[in-house]
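Below is how a single chain appears once it has passed through the pipeline. First comes the sequence as given, then the structure the pipeline wrote out for it. We keep one example in the README because the format questions we get most often are answered faster by looking than by reading.
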Amino acid sequence: MLMALKHMTMKFVSWQPGKIVFGTNSLSLIGEEVRRWGTKAILVTGRTFARKYGYTDYITKKLEEAGLKVTVFDKVEPNPSAETVDKGAKAVVEFGADVVVAFGGGSPMDAAKGIAVVSVLGGSAYDYFYPRVIEEEVLPVIAVPTTAGTGSEVTRYAVITDTKQNKKKVIVGYPIIPKTAILDPTVLKHMSPELTAWTGFDALSHAVEAYLSVKADPLSDIYAERAVRLIFDWLGDAVKGSLEAREKVYFASMLAGFAINHAGTMMVHGLGYYLTTKFNVHHGLANALLLPHALELISEKEPEKIERLGVMIGVGRSVEFFVRELKKLEDEVRIPKSIAEVGFKEENLDEAVKESLSYERNLQNTPIPINEKVVREVYRAALKGR
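Resulting structure:
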């Protein structure tokens, strides 16, 4: 018994305060879920999707039927800027909203979280970027994800673009985790094959990075392992249009969000941000382009957990086999072969390395020391391609 106690290493803190409403047609419940948190709602969404497919009117109607007053802020762009967050916060104050409803992919959800902070605490989104950690109470957020990738509906992160430095920044804190996440798989029917692939790889990258993170714990491992298995099993069919498969990846994305709440992300995200800010590459696609090359490098010094990933997907305890299957999945869902295909050139290397090294919050979670040589090696491998 004493020996068993001596070797116990299980230690973690879990904070998942949100309610999850998952299932077909769960969007119809949005009125009753939102009215638990306020009486005047602002619907934060993107510029086209919600209106194009009738969701803006549908959600507004459901909220009004539940007795809420509603205004719409549909100015959120991909990779939302701090300035957009500030405009949304101003709209909240002018309307007197006491609850924020986010509908869309990661961008509207992240913007909504930022709006919930700035509208209560004042100032600008620029005032709340990490290393500032939000501990104060902010407006409640109710989130409805329309893609299967970011997991933002359950995370304590809001990724916002600092347009002054052309960098991705993050607002972070447990109070910004949405109070309720409504995951209705029927909204995924509008996704293109490309977006399905890209967001699916965002979720896969979250799961793998959290699993390998130096902050990983027994609970984050459970979330990550399940997410990895689901995505390998179902992403191919999801890209082909299967709604059942999209539902499975949707669930995996949520699990991966739980995983990064515990463990964060690592070098793949830190390097991927450059591709997004410099070449306007979708965040999930940027992760996909870098993930296998980062894993090959990490495996040279830390093979054990990557070997376990191979076991999870049924190819055996092997780094080589896992990375091979990862590349096969990228081929199947038509991820470009290299970062050259999205505009990256040899001449961008120095700038990319310098920029990526500034994302210390991500890089420090990597299970190997990250320096200029390591970052350059990953970019060179990604430039050469799989």
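Residues 192-384 form a domain with the Dehydroquinate synthase-like, alpha domain fold (CATH 1.20.1090.10).

See the next section for the split statistics.
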